[in-house]
Each structure stands twice: as C-alpha cells, then as structure tokens.
Amino acid sequence: MSYDPSAFPPFAVTVDLVVLTVRRHALCALAVRRGEAPYKGRWALPGGFVRADEDLTQAAARELAEETGLHAHAPSVPAQDNGAHLEQLATYGDPGRDPRMRVVSVAHLALAPDLPAPRAGGDASNARWAPVEELLRHEGYGRDGETAAPLAFDHAQILADGVERARSKIEYSSLATAFCPTEFTVGELRRVYEAVWGVALDPRNFHRKVTGTPGFLVPTGGTTTRQGGRPAQLFRAGGATLLNPPMLRPEV
Amino acid sequence: MSYDPSAFPPFAVTVDLVVLTVRRHALCALAVRRGEAPYKGRWALPGGFVRADEDLTQAAARELAEETGLHAHAPSVPAQDNGAHLEQLATYGDPGRDPRMRVVSVAHLALAPDLPAPRAGGDASNARWAPVEELLRHEGYGRDGETAAPLAFDHAQILADGVERARSKIEYSSLATAFCPTEFTVGELRRVYEAVWGVALDPRNFHRKVTGTPGFLVPTGGTTTRQGGRPAQLFRAGGATLLNPPMLRPEV
DNA sequence: GATCATAGTCGTCTCACTGACGATAAACAC
DNA sequence: GTGTTTATCGTCAGTGAGACGACTATGATC
Questions:
Q1: At A122, is the pLDDT very low, low, confident or very high (cuts 50, 70, 90)?
Q2: Nucleotide showing the shortest C1' distance to residue B225 CA
Q3: Between the ranges A6-15, A69-78, B147-156, B210-219, where is the mean pLDDT highest?
Q4: Which residues of A, range 228-247, sit inside 8 Å of B by Cβ?
Q5: Rounded to an integer, what distance in angstroms lies between the CA atom of residue B143 and that of residue B26?
Q6: Are A207 and A191 in contact (CB under 8 A)?
Q7: Most buried of the four, A250, B25, B66, B83, by CB within 10 Å?
Q8: Best CA proximity match to A50, nearest among A15, A2, A98, A82
C-alpha cells in the first residue's frame, strides 16, 4: 500500500496492436517483421513504447497511424471515412515475456476496412496482412516458410485474444461495419461476418435481420453491382452501436 | 520501434481491485480509506504495486488476499468453496492520474459471495463494503458524510467500468453464481441478478429459465428455509460458464 | 437475343423462447 | 385455523430465428 517513490520497481510500458481487416474472404491481421533481437526476423504485432506524456489510447493511435496511416476513431463513434475502430484489449505483463527487461504491454484492438498495402516505416517488405489462421498456426507445418515460425513474444496469445474479442463483439454491436468501406451492401456486410466467424450464413435471413434492426443500417439511395449479379442497395452504418437482439453466431 | 533500454520512460505499475459482492439486496464494492497524500482520508479502491517478479494476475490475487482473505479462482473455474472470481478489467494510464508520478494501473474485477467484515491490514475502520450507487454518487449530497467525497484518483471511473462489466457478464455467463455461497437457492440467485441489475425479475419466469438451462445449476438434493416461506431446493453452480441463450436484462 | 450464372430481395412456415400471469404448495407467525 | 411468505408448476400469446421457396435484376456465354 505504500507509495514510497523509491519502493516500486520500474517497468517499461508498451502498446501492441492487433489490427484486423477482412481481405479476400479471410480475417487478416497486420504483422511486422522484427529487425532486432530478440526474435530478430520473426513476425510480430506492431507496437512501441508509450511516451512519458502520452495517454495509452494516444500511444495506440499514434502507433496505428505510423504503421497504417489510419486515423483512429473513439470507441463510441462508428467507423466512417477512412478511420478505424480502436479500443483497449487487455494488458500482458508476465515477468519474462520480454527477455531483456520487465515490459508491460497494453494491447489494443483496431478494426479497419480493406486497405492498400501496409507500410512499416516505409518498408513494405517488413509489414504484411496475414490471415490470422496462418499466424496462429504455430506448429510451422505450413508451406509458407515465412509464417512457419510462431509470432514473437506472447503475440500469438495477444492476437488470439483480439480475434476472440472481435468475434464476440460483432455479435452484439454494429462493429462489423468497421470492416466495411463507408458505403457497403448487405452482401458485403454478410461476407464480413462470414470471414470473421468462419461460417456460412443464410443470405435471406441475414438480409432480413440486418435491415430489420433499427439504427444498424441506413440506405444511401445508391446501388452497386460491384459484386456481380443483381444490383444491391448501398448502406452506411447507422447510429446504433448495440444490437438488440444480437446477431446469432451459428454454433454447435 | 527501437528497444534501446535507455530510450524508454520508466513507469510504476499497480493493480487496483474492484471487489464486488451483494449485501442486503445491494451491489457493494470494497473501499479502503487512504492514509497518505494525495487524497488522504478519501475512499479508494484497494490496490498496490506490482512486484518485480510477479505476474499481473498474481499481484491482483495477492492484493485480494491481503484485503479480504479471499483465495482467487482462475477465470475459467466457477466459484466454489471460499474463493472469488478474478479477472482483468482494463488498464488506466493517463499521465496525471497520479499527481506524484507516472502510474499505469491494471484494474482487476473480483466477484465474491457475501463476506464477514473486511479487514484492511487489520484495521477495520479503514475498509468497508459500500453500495456502488453510493460510491458513484459523486456530487456528495448524500447524508452520509463519509461517502460524500468522490473516490480518489480515477477510481470512480474504474469502479463504474467494473460494475458495467459485471452487469453485462452475468447476462451471458454463469458468473452470478460467484456472488452466491457454495449452495444456494434459485431465489437467492434471483436476488443477485436483481441487486446487480437493479431491477425486479419475475420469480416464475426466472425459475423456469435457470433450471431449464443445461449445466447452469445442479441440485444438491438438500433444501432450506433460510429465506422463509416454502422450503427451496439447494443448488450449486454447474459446469457451464457460457449461457446460451443468455439471461435477458429487462430494459427500455 | 436466349440462356445461364450470380447475387439480391421478399415471403412463408415452424419451432423455441420469453413475458405476463393464474394456481398450487409448503413452511412460519399469530 | 388464518394470513403471509416464498417456491414451483402451468398456460397462453407474441416475438424472433432457421429453413427454404420464389422472384428479380444484372453480366457472361453461346
């Protein structure tokens, strides 16, 4: 209970980012290649130290901008324009999670629409969107040599926690729209759910559900045929953030 | 991105605890009186520094034991014996949240059955169970002079976040049983929901719902009349942790 | 231009579950 | 006994989800 300033051990505090997007029907996360020991050459989550005068959320938003150019939204605001949803995920502080010193990492979760190629400090070869399934396939039997090695530090755990958060949160919130561009169709939104949950959903029931939930979607009046087939109405995210009743994730 | 050990600012890392219980039909939190500046004499959440060789969860469990004598459970295990549910809540790291230095606090949420009086380092007058409604009533117009002042630091925000977590989590998990003793009746469990949500629930529908959810409750065979009225069956928590379909919180 | 493939949209039917609420049961206080 | 309290069982109507049929509007192919 004592706050004697000489009595507490010093920690380094970092933010690590789980940046998720949906590309080619797969849930993908941003990974950067480590340029230094430890885990040199291995893939890791983007992140960095929290500065002395910086809030944790500010630090996460700064790192996100540095890695992706994305502008972060406050958690309550639905993703519009070119912004990403950003929220705190959890904090990881095992002694020994970093072999060099005692580091406590405050992980954040960011959800972004499909983006152009990532840039890590301008060096594209050191950053990539990788399917989370691939990043979490630890054993390294995949044919892609680059991702055969598990993520550095405890980042596999952090990524898994972030994915699980995203999977559960799109059930009861309108967060899935954060994966979509400003204007999107019901089918595009459905493909987001299908990619994040890894299941197939009935297009007719999905359409009835999302268009029937007040505040979830607002029609823009336009239509598009970019998915082929019959033209689909365009929507943008409505003001509702909590869905009641929630979307039901098929299970069992 | 650089990990130059001389390039990061040092932080103090603490754990703060939101310890909730249900007493006399009210959701209560453990509060301790601060013995030192800043906020000397004000009520605060229990907490303390994370030690150099300690995991965050270990630190939270240690603080919990020091303040209450409670033995913490792993998050996956339902509360049995004399243990409490413990899970990480969120991390608070505003510069300036502690006027003396840069402190990052990893808040944890603990749920406990109704306990004997708290003990803070053996001094009972410096620890108490207070209704959360009272602790969060910042303005200080209450007639109880002791709680007229808001909680120290950003602890009102932390407490509010913890209460909100508990309120939402008993919807879709069996966590409400963590507020009950090992053996309890359906009526006692219902009073937990009523206290946490601050609503009245229909006893008949509640009974149908909880006894009809597989894995939620297992009858022990015994009965009790400790609540008065007709004897009620005793149950203990079943193995299920996720309730599907969830309990529905009345709203609107 | 007819046909086909693809996606979107509207409807219908059934079943499960909930909320409202009546009725009965088993204890205690008087 | 009578009244009070709490527990427990039943009924009924309304809501919403899953399964799935039917129709529509576009581009691609022959």
A1: low
A2: C27
A3: B210-219
A4: 244
A5: 18
A6: no
A7: B83
A8: A15
Read off the pLDDT of each residue in B219-241 and give the average, rounded to a whole number: 93
Specify whether the CB–CB gap between B227 and B188 falls below 8 A. yes
Closest Cα partner for B26 from B137, B143, B106?
B137
Give the pLDDT confidence score for residue B73 in this predicted structure. 74
Alpha carbon of B123 to those of B118, B128, B222: distances in Å?
9, 10, 38
Q: Please check whether residue A98 is in contact with residue A9, taking contact to mean a CB–CB distance below 8 angstroms.
A: no
- Among chain B residues, the shortest Cα distance to A14 is held by B8
- Nearest CA among A162, A180, A135 for reference residue A44: A135
Contact A52 B13 (CB under 8 A): no
Nearest to B175 by CA among B186, B157, B189: B189
Both tokens of residue B85? 């549910």
User: What pLDDT digit, counting tens, does each position of B149-187 carry?
Assistant: 789 999 999 999 999 999 999 999 999 999 999 999 999
Q: Is A227 helix (H, G, I), strand (E, B) or coil?
A: coil
Q: A191: Cβ under 7 Å from strand C? A: no
Among all residues of chain A, which has the CA nearest to that of B47?
Answer: A1
Which pair of tokens denotes residue B178? 């963590």
Which residue matches tokens 């009641």? A244
Is pLDDT of A177 > 70? Answer: yes
Would an 8 Å CB–CB cutoff place B64 in contact with chain A? no
- Measured at the CA of A130, the angle between CA A227 and CA A185, to 5 degrees, comes to 20
B140-146: average pLDDT: 49
- 10 Å Cβ neighbour count for B90? 21
Distance, in Å, from the CA atom of B94 to the CA atom of A57, rounded to the nearest integer, reads 9
pLDDT in tens, A50-105: 999 999 999 999 999 998 888 887 665 544 456 799 999 999 999 999 999 999 99
CB contact under 8 Å between A49 and B9, yes or no, is yes
Query: Which chain A residues contact residue B13 at CB under 8 A?
Result: 8, 11, 13, 93, 104
Instruction: Tally C-beta pairs within 8 A across A and B.
Output: 93
Residues whose CB is less than 8 angstroms from the CB of residue B122 and which lie 6 or more positions away in sequence, other chains included: none
Q: How far is CA A151 from CA A90, B18, B162, B171, in A?
A: 18, 33, 32, 34
Residue keyed to tokens 């090992």 = B182
